[in-house]
Each structure stands twice: as structure tokens, then as C-alpha cells.
Design goal:
nine-stranded mixed beta sheet, binds 2-OXO-4-methylpentanoic acid, 8 helices, eight-stranded mixed beta sheet, single chain
């Protein structure tokens, strides 16, 4: 892999700096281009510096682009561990197919990420709860205004040392059940990790933030009845001892942390169910005390307890507004594997030395 070195390295955030999420970026990035004639080509590592694009470039107009989120963690033996990257590459190629983006060769981006992480190892923050966030992205780069799939693309991976996704860390989140706006619908792009899904969610997110909520809990587009996901996380509820999460009906992102939590729960003998779950069922179960915990899962959010939901102007506290036992068990299990303090019994970590 070609590596173009930079003259001066950036100043890294000092130990103890509140990193937030996606505020700092490392010295280098991985890039690769696509043209119809050459396919994916010119894979290299180069300084993470601004690139120039013509304002007619199609990504600026029609959002033909996709991304992923992964994390790298410093292991106790000094190596670098990435959580389930194969799952992200597979999901990214699924998103590519949905967005008419040519599939990329996994082996090339795998090698690119490995080399990039070796080069940027010193950027991995060491404080508890921090990680090096990995953002692979593909954008359409052909200069044209016709609404057609582009014939040129840029694949890039940038890295950002991050802390907790939520400013309040592991404090339970407050969610506003969104019964006006829609994130995604069956036949739409909800299960692809495409740029437009996130742009479409912002209006609801901003209005929820103004009312003091962390995120919105999306309902299905047709009936505004079935719970879908949070946008930055998948959602789980513990109802009558059973751990329930909405089934992947086509409008929900198939989360990798979601899949990992279901695996851990099943291996440990918990009753789990992936099914349609209505907001009426949730409200009734909170009312009769059978809903004991709720939590979100995601790469950025990890496992985040949910302490309160608002639906039709009424607030419902969940689990006394505290992190529940199953949520804590999953948090410890997933982060233990990620930080290398627990045995990686399912072979989820890719270790880079
Ligand atoms: C992630 O968890 O990696 C995400 O992509 C969610 C959000 C930060 C966009």
C-alpha cells in the first residue's frame, strides 16, 4: 500500500481532554477511487487534508453516498483491536448495492485500514470509555447534475479519537417518541447506511433537542404505531423478563452491536424476541410494571440505557430512570471484549500488531 507522508504531524488532544464525538481527526486517511474504466483503483494512505471538489459534483446535489462506523481500542498488550470489522464491510457493500454504488473489494480496504491504524496508533485515546472511531465513507464524485448513478466515486476512511456519544455519558437517555416525522419506510433506504437517512432525521432531532431530549424514537411510517429505532442506535426493551427488539423489517438499520447483544443474550440463556413491538404495548408495559429496562445499541452509542420516553406529551420513566441489570451485563460484556479485559470467546476482535 502506497503511503504518502506528511511534513508536520498535528497536535494530538492532551490526555484528559473531553474528546466529545468526531471533533478531532488524525493525521492520515485512506483513499481509493472508482471509475468505470479502471474499477476501484489507486488505494493509498495520504495526509488527512482538505480535498477540492467542483461544486457540480453529484454528492453535493443528490447524496449518493454511504458510510460506516467502527471503533478501534487499545488492548492491554499494546496491540490494536477493531470490533467486528467484517460485519461493517459486508453491511457497507449491502448499502452500496442499494445506492447503486459499485461494490468495493473488501481485502483492499481491510489492508488499508490495517496500515492506517498501524500508522495512527498513537491517536488511540487511553481513558476509560474512549476509542478511535473509524469512519469509512463512499461519495459520488462525477461532476454532473443529471439524476443518475455516478460513474465515479471516492472511498475514504478517516479516524477520530472519541469519548462518549452522549454528552452525559452513561446517564440514561431521554427519548421523544416521534409521531409526526418519518425516518424511513418499507421500500425506502432505512436499512442502508446512506447519507440521506441522517439528513432526513435532523428536523425531528433538532425539535426534540429543543425540548430537552437526547434523540427521537422513530415509529413505522405507515401506522405510526410500531417502534423502529433511534437513528443513532437500535432499541431494546425488557418486557416480562424477555428482551425484545424490533424485527428488521426493511426500514431499520441492521446494527452490529444489536446483533452482538442478541448473540450474548441467547448464549447466556435469556429469552429474546425480534418482533414488531407497538408503542401502545410499551406504554402499557411501563404502566403495569412489566417493562423493566430499555436501552439503545450502536457503535458510537455502545449500550446506552434509556431512562425516560415522552409519548403524546406524557412522560414515562423506565426502570426508575437508572441503568438496568441486563443493560449493565451487556455493557460489561461488549466493552470487556472491546477493551480486551474479557476473553473474546466469539472471535469478534480483529487484532492488529
Ligand atoms: C455509529 O454508531 O457508528 C453511527 O454511525 C451512528 C451515528 C453516529 C451516525
Amino acid at each position: 500500500m502506497q503511503i504518502v507522508k506528511r511534513e508536520h504531524l498535528k497536535q494530538k488532544p492532551q490526555a484528559g481532554t473531553a474528546l466529545g464525538f468526531g471533533r478531532y481527526f488524525t493525521d492520515y486517511m485512506f483513499t481509493m477511487k472508482y471509475t468505470v474504466e479502471k474499477g476501484w483503483h489507486d488505494a493509498k494512505i495520504q495526509p488527512n487534508e482538505p480535498l477540492q471538489f467542483d461544486l457540480g459534483t453529484s454528492i453535493f446535489h443528490y447524496a449518493q453516498g454511504i458510510f460506516e462506523g467502527m471503533k478501534a481500542f487499545l488492548q492491554p498488550d499494546g496491540s490494536v483491536g477493531v470490533f467486528r470489522p467484517d460485519e461493517n464491510w459486508a453491511r457497507m457493500n449491502n448499502s452500496a448495492r442499494r445506492m447503486c454504488i459499485p461494490e468495493f473489494p473488501v481485502s483492499v480496504v481491510e489492508e488499508g485500514l490495517e496500515e492506517l491504524l498501524k500508522l495512527e496508533k498513537d491517536w488511540i485515546p487511553k481513558e476509560a470509555g474512549t476509542a478511535l472511531y473509524i469512519r469509512p465513507t463512499i461519495v459520488a464524485t462525477r461532476v454532473m447534475l443529471g439524476v443518475h448513478a455516478s460513474t465515479e466515486y471516492l472511498f475514504f476512511i478517516i479516524l477520530s479519537p472519541v469519548g462518549s456519544y452522549y454528552a452525559h455519558g452513561l446517564e440514561p437517555t431521554k427519548l421523544l417518541v416521534e409521531d409526526n416525522y418519518t425516518r424511513a419506510t418499507i421500500g425506502g433506504t432505512g436499512e442502508a447506511k446512506c447519507l440521506g437517512n441522517y439528513a432526513a432525521s435532523m428536523k425531528a432531532g433538532e425539535e426534540a433537542a429543543e425540548k430537552g431530549f437526547d434523540q427521537v424514537l422513530w415509529l413505522d411510517a405507515q401506522e405510526k404505531r410500531y417502534v423502529e429505532e433511534v437513528g443513532s442506535m437500535n432499541i431494546f426493551f425488557v418486557i416480562g423478563g424477555e428482551v425484545v427488539t424490533p424485527a428488521l423489517v426493511g426500514s431499520i438499520l441492521p446494527g452490529i452491536t444489536r446483533k452482538s447483544c442478541l448473540h450474548i443474550l441467547r448464549e447466556r440463556g435469556y429469552k429474546t424476541s425480534e418482533r414488531r413491538v407497538s408503542i401502545e404495548e410499551i406504554i402499557a408495559a411501563i404502566g403495569n410494571g412489566t417493562l423493566t429496562e430499555a436501552f439503545g445499541t450502536g457503535t458510537a452509542a455502545v449500550i446506552s440505557p434509556v431512562g425516560l420516553i415522552r409519548y403524546k406529551k406524557r412522560d414515562y420513566t423506565i426502570g426508575g430512570g437508572k441503568m438496568g441489570l441486563i443493560t449493565k451485563m451487556l455493557y460489561d460484556a461488549v466493552t470487556g471484549v472491546q477493551y480486551g479485559t474479557r476473553q473474546d470467546e466469539y472471535g469478534w476482535m480483529k487484532i492488529i500488531r
